[in-house]
Amino acid sequence: MIGDDRDPVDSALPEHRSAADQAADASDATADQAASEAADERKAASVRRAIRRELEPDEAPAAGASQPATAAPTKPEPAAVVQLEHVSLAFGDPVLEDVSITAREGQTIVIVGESGTGKSTTLKLILRLLRPDEGRVLVHGEDITNVAFDEALRIRQTMGMVFQGAALFDSLDVFENVAYPLREHTTLDEEEIAARVREKLQFVDLEPDKVERLLPAELSGGMRKRVGIARAMSNNAKLMLYDEPTSGLDPLTTGTITRLIMKLQRELGVTSVVVTHDIRSANRMASAIALLHDHRITFFGTPEEMAASDDPYIRDFLGGY
Amino acid sequence: MQRVLSCLVSGCWSSRPLASEPLSHSLDRLNELAKQKVHEVQNFSVLAWNAIRFIFARPFYLGDIVDQMDVIGVGSLGIVLLTGFFTGMVLALQMGNSLQTFGATLYVGRLVTASMIRELGPVLAGLTVAGRVGSGIAAEIGSMKVTEQIDALNTLGTDPIKKLVTPRLLAALLMLPVLTVIDDFVGIVGGNIVGTLIVGIPTGVYWRTVWAQIASDGFVFRYIPNDFVQGLAKPFIFGGIIALSGCYYGLATTGGTEGVGQSTTRTVVASSIAILIVDYFMTQLLLSVLP
Fold first, then answer.
1. Which is it for strands A288-293 and A108-113: parallel, antiparallel or unpaired?
2. Does B83 contact chain A (CB < 8 Å)?
């Protein structure tokens, strides 16, 4: 596994590259895609190093970690896009207890944990579909904990949500699904809507001419997920939330969706909060991983720190992979 | 009885010995059931209030309203024509048979008209639409609920009540009276055919008695027959009951495809019972209000 005597960042990257990219390489043969992935990884590694510095300002560097001399000069901290502050929620039984997570601009925060530990609930709190019993939820610096329903609808327009089953509207074709937020909340004319829809479909590697008149039932699982991402980003949302984006997909499609999430971060600077069971994808895309256990965040750090952790539960959790 | 009441007030049954536990459990269950029913009524009322409120609020979703009018109105036309036609025919047959004894077969037209316009037209249209459309609404919205499409609407900044419930409510409110008028007319035509061919009433006489019946109960605002007011007020309310029941049970769906099935069944049962009960009270109210 990952050697403890090496830089956790550098030592971890080849491991999950080799694991995940075996599948990815099979599907992506072109030089452009390879270059794009390399850029993804460089960017991810750079963000991880920044996060590690941010998370452990006072701790001594891990054995073999980059020396202070090689560290980048201190930059102003990116603005917090999502903040959960000491959030607790119970439906009779506790669902979340004293959970605090911050996602800063351009970061991809991945929430992992066993089923039923409140991962999806966290997304619902960010969307203000639920209200916490205690604590605060801030999005783009605005406290949304107690906003009214109409106000919550407005705030949600600034986010994009990708559902586990894509949740495309059955009765609408692909074009109309992606165009839905534009028709609802913008005054764009038909030409502009068509151009935006085609642009988003191309961004998620779908050919508009082939898919835009298909109904969701005619799409494969991976295509549905990609259309779901295109719909979520059609309003040019700067915050994307993903609920199990790779569940139920084959390894090749899982790689494609993971790269898509990274592409959104790299090319558009989108902040993402991803809930997943797929620790391999999490390792590739995460700026930081939050582990939910017993309704609490028991770990928050970079994928490398997670891999290097001696915590018995984390070892057990990762053992399955 | 007094002991049970005092226990209810003090909550003492929970600390009673084993012998009284079955009673306490039954009371607990009753309490829970009552709370659940009150909660359901509250949720239904909130849904109805919001759906009605949104009729007057932007955006209006005119395309969805027209689509739903097509589904509810045009889609139900066949079944309404069929039920109305055969109901009118069987009414004429039964009444012709009974009235022949008294030599009063000329009254067949009047009786068919009164029965169809006041009661059978609205109730039959209501029940058939409840079976066809109410279940369809519950199934569609229930499926959207279990496949997270309702959550998707919410996250895309759309109020699902405004987008899904209000257009269906408005379409049902508008289309049920139209379907009822068609149902009434076809029923009276069915009565005419049986009256002429089997009972032996000339067509001209039949239609004169139909008009005589419509005019006999007086008019509202000098021109609108009382029978029409009764016959059109009811389906308007029935339309609301059907659409709101379908949407309520659809939005309350849980438990996957099995839950969708349960929601459709509940919608048909609840809206059919509600239509029959409301019909009685509306009749009583309208009879006392109308001149």
1. parallel
2. no
